[in-house]
Amino acid sequence: MRNNIIEELSEHFMIIMPLLQKKIFDSISAEEIPPVRLSPASGRVLILLHELRRAIVSDLSEQLNISRPNMTPLLEKLVRQELVERIPCENDRRNIYIQITPKGDWVCSEFQRVISGKIKDMLSVYDDIDLSELIVHMNKLKSILLKLPK
C-alpha cells in the first residue's frame, strides 16, 4: 500500500514539475529579464546569497551541494558580472567571504518580480473557490515538504 502511494506521488511530481516549468519559466521572454547570463547553478548561488547576504565559500558549497572546485568558476563568473564580490576574512585569512552586490540584489529582485507576475497571471484565471482550495493545499504541501531532511 505504502509503495503504491509513493509511486503515485512520484508520478504526480513528475507531471507537476515540468508543468510549472512550462507555465511559468518558459513563458518568460528575454526582454522581461535582466540582461545577465546565468547558469542554473550560478542562479542558485546568487539566490542563496540574496538571502544570506554574505557567506564563506565552503558554506555555499555545502548548502548548495556543489563541490568546492566547481564553486570557483561559478563565483568567478559572478564576480566578473559584478553580481558578487570577494571579501577577505579579517579573522582567518584562509577564508574568503562572498557577498552579493547591489547589482546582484537588483538582478534577484527583477527575476522575483517577473516570476511573481507570471504566477499571478497564471492564477488570475481561477475563481475564488479554486484559489482558496489551492492555498490550503499549497500550505499543506509546503508544511509536508519542510519536514524532509536535507
Question: What is the mean pLDDT?
Answer: 92
Q: Under the CATH scheme, which architecture would be assigned?
A: Orthogonal Bundle
What series of H and E elements makes up the topology? HHEHHEEHH
How far do the termini sit from each other? 26 Å
Poorly predicted regions are: none
Overall shape? globular
The quaternary structure here is single chain
The strand count comes to 3
- The CATH topology corresponds to Arc Repressor Mutant, subunit A
Domain count, please report it: 1
Largest sheet: 3 strands, antiparallel
The side-by-side strand order for the widest beta sheet comes to 1-3-2
Rg value = 19 Å
Specify the number of helices: 6
Kindly name the structural category: mainly alpha
- Tell me roughly what share of residues is in helical segments: 55-70%
CATH homologous superfamily placement: Winged helix-like DNA-binding domain superfamily/Winged helix DNA-binding domain
Name the CATH class: Mainly Alpha
Report the portion of residues in β strands.
5-15%
Give me some keywords for this one:
single chain; 150 residues; mainly alpha; Arc Repressor Mutant, subunit A; 3 strands; 9% strand; globular; DNA-binding transcription factor activity; WH-like_DNA-bd_sf
Describe this structure in words.
The protein is mainly alpha-helical and 150 residues long. The chain has one domain: Winged helix-like DNA-binding domain superfamily/Winged helix DNA-binding domain (Arc Repressor Mutant, subunit A). Helix content is 65%, strand content 9%. It has six helices and three strands, in the order ααβααββαα. The chain has a three-stranded antiparallel beta sheet with strand order 1-3-2. Helix 2 packs across helix 4. The protein is globular, with a radius of gyration of 19 Å.
